[in-house]
Specification:
It is a single chain. The chain is α/β, with parallel strands linked by helices and 308 residues long. The strands form three sheets. The chain has a five-stranded mixed sheet. The chain has a five-stranded mixed sheet with strand order 11-10-9-12-13, sandwiched between helices. A three-stranded antiparallel sheet has the order 5-6-7. It has two domains: 2-112 and 285-306, ATPase, nucleotide binding domain (Nucleotidyltransferase, domain 5, 2-Layer Sandwich); 122-280, Nucleotidyltransferase, domain 5, CATH 3.30.420.40. Helices cover 38% and strands 22% of the residues. The protein contains ten helices and 13 strands. The two termini are 28 Å apart. The chain is globular, with a radius of gyration of 19 Å. One of its GO terms (molecular function) is fructokinase activity. It comes from Microbacterium lemovicicum. It holds the Pfam family ROK.
Length: 308
């Protein structure tokens, strides 16, 4: 079995794949805090998968892990995973000796891009746009993840699209993330709630003017990211994933309407049919954990799935 884990700030989603790529088991468990907590979470998830799949630990051949933060290309060293309480961690060095199998690590968005591409059939090109607390993308062509020269390909969240726009935590103004990131929207909303972006959409539909402005801001930011990705990569499709896609058709409709509106004056932009190239990742999709399993199965640290 090939195991893949998506280690998130609150939960870890893990899958075990069989010989034909089928999902033999899937588990979810809370992510413990800090480097030691992450290590224990990974070990516990692998144990649970073995039990649920009815297989011994010896049946596991590789483990791949997707994590937030920066993963240095060619290594398993993760830095600045602040949502996990991890400043620096060589995850493979910590868990591979205990598991007895190769362990490889990838940034969570890039892993999710690989998984989404595989679920979409594995052909052509795809830009996976993750909409969560922040905004980032992964770009995949024919199963190959494009990293760029320094591993930052797809970091579209901090492209400024309006110098007079809202302040971004990165120090610029008008970044895509400042318009559409869940964290920035919650901060601008300023009202308590477990799901502030959903609250914004509900309040906008009830006529709240601030909510309506923030909902429009989200659509504007996501549409800008779609334009950037298509104009720079000409991806066949842009798949929207991440926590904000729980808004479902409301988000998809808003983004499509903004893409159509912003292209109205440009025959060139209309010819790209951007609104038709946007899809939502299916709810409860195992894309991130699946992509991590594919990362783990690569033959070397730079493997065919991760060429720069």
């Amino acid at each position: 079995m090939r195991v893949g884990l998506d280690v998130g700030g609150t939960k870890t989603d893990a899958v075990a794949l069989g010989d034909a790529g089928e999902v033999r088991a899937r588990v979810r468990l809370p992510t413990a805090w800090g480097p030691d907590g992450v290590v224990q979470t990974v070990l516990a998830a692998v144990d649970r998968l073995s039990l649920d799949a009815g297989a011994s630990a010896e049946a596991i051949t590789t483990v791949g892990v997707g994590m937030p933060g920066q993963v240095h290309p060619g290594t398993s060293r993760v830095v600045h995973a602040v949502n996990l309480g991890v400043d620096e961690l060589d995850l493979a060095a910590a868990v591979a000796p205990l598991l007895g199998v190769p362990v490889r690590v990838e940034n969570d968005v890039k892993a999710a891009a690989l998984g989404a591409h595989a679920l979409d059939g594995g052909g052509g090109s795809m830009a996976y746009l993750n909409l969560g607390t922040g905004i980032a993308a992964g770009i995949v062509t024919e199963g190959t993840l494009w990293r760029g020269g320094r591993g930052t390909a797809g970091e579209v969240g901090h492209i400024s699209v309006d110098p007079a726009g809202p302040a971004c935590r990165c120090g610029q103004r008008g970044c895509i993330e400042a318009f559409a990131g869940g964290g920035a929207l919650a901060e601008r909303w300023g009202r308590p709630g477990a799901l502030p972006v959903r609250d914004i959409f509900d309040a906008a539909e009830a006529g709240d003017p601030l909510a309506a402005a923030l909902r429009s801001s989200l659509a504007r930011g996501v549409a800008a990211a779609v334009r950037v990705l298509v104009l720079t990569t000409d991806a066949d499709v842009v798949v929207l994933g991440g926590g904000l896609t729980g808004l479902g058709h409301r988000l998809r409709a808003d983004v499509a309407a903004e893409l159509t509106r912003s292209a109205a004056a440009s025959p060139f932009m209309r010819s790209l049919r951007l609104d038709e190239r946007v899809r939502l990742l299916a709810p409860e999709s195992p894309a991130a954990a699946l992509g991590a399993a594919l990362v783990g199965a690569t033959r070397d640290a730079e493997g065919a799935l991760a060429r720069g």
